[in-house]
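Let us practice reading a record.
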Amino acid sequence: MDVLAQLLEELTTGKLEIIDLTSPLEPETPVIDLPPMFAPSPGLTLTEISHYDNRGPAWYWNVLYMGEHTGTHFDAPIHWITGKELPNNATDTILPSKFIGPACVIDVTAEVKQDPDYLLTIERVEQWEADHGHIPNGAWLLIHTGWSQRAGREAFLNIHDDGAHSPGFHPSCSAFLAKERDILGVGVETVGTDAGQAGGFDPPFPSHTYMHGAGRFGITSLMNLDLLPPTGAIVIAAPLKIVKGSGSPLRVIAITR
């Protein structure tokens, strides 16, 4: 059987399952808090154009106003200074084939439960590879932290007097993944691909610095990673084709058995 026909048959019969990894996008969706000296990114504002009324009797639609990096969203290399000179670095020029890849899911929920500032290390990645095989080229590396279970802006951003506290990558791990593994990018359940305290790391915000400098991507605010196996799923994460876009909200789906 033709591979595409087989795929459709297995989706139709339920042999393959589609998992939505996308958080709902609404005005209450949290966006990253930056220090006051930096320009803030707005959350979603939804303004009604018409709703089956005299403004449009047979149709309903809205105006969306928000930053590119709102909700479950895609980070393109041009988003960060280290990736600003790379070719095909924006949402309209990245090859569509780069949006689809196998998922490698590293479960660190137990560690994050003990320490909200948990950082993924090279050793933890290598431990996962010892159990599940080498991370394949063109894969999405997804970290399952359980952070998507946090309800409300306050718990999700987890900001204290010394800044935000949320899990992420150790700087050496970000460099390792960017230089030693040919991945498409990384996906996280938190508001950004860097840990909450990453502004004080060396370099600051290492996930953005290393990954985008290497032409890799980021996906944030994922959910339902607990429904994916460590390997075997396929992830599709396609941003809007915004000209010179640094990122975009997106609908991330996974296909799994």
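A brief commentary: The mean pLDDT is 97.
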